[in-house]
Design goal:
The protein is α+β, with helices and mostly antiparallel strands and 117 residues long. It contains two helices and five strands, in the order H-E-E-E-E-E-H. The chain has helices spanning 4-8, 96-116; strands at residues 13-15, 27-35, 41-49, 61-66, 79-88. A hairpin with a 5-residue loop joins strand 2 and strand 3.
Length: 117
């Protein structure tokens, strides 16, 4: 990825978005990220879409932020995500501050939902 999530305080694991993979509609989701090498499962906020707040390439991406973890090193690690609940649709924000506010709300919503599942 562009490492933008890390710069915003939300480092993400970027998953390949292959045409044959089952991927839900663009938006933000609560779900689980599982490391396939260790079977560890982590709660996550997952973004599916084109990152419309930022200019540049509009490639559709699947990115997962493991909630409250900035210490995980997932480069080169095979992972899978499971989508639990849709949090909101994908949208362009007026700026980075507005985006970060929404991301903080997404994390809070994902925690609440995943704590119940």
């Amino acid at each position: 990825g562009d490492q933008r999530g890390r710069e915003l305080g939300f480092p993400t694991a970027n998953l390949p978005n292959r045409g044959a993979a089952a991927t839900p509609a663009d938006g933000v989701y609560a779900g689980w990220l599982t490391r396939l090498d260790t079977a560890e499962r982590f709660p996550a906020a997952i973004s599916v879409g084109t990152n419309p707040t930022f200019s540049g390439e509009r490639e559709r991406r699947v990115e997962a932020y493991v909630l409250d973890r900035s210490d995980l090193e997932l480069y080169g690690v095979d992972v899978e995500v499971a989508f639990v609940a849709h949090l909101r649709g994908m949208r362009a924000f007026a700026g980075v501050d507005e985006l970060i506010t929404a991301m903080n709300q997404d994390v809070a919503d994902a925690k609440r939902i995943l704590d119940r599942s």
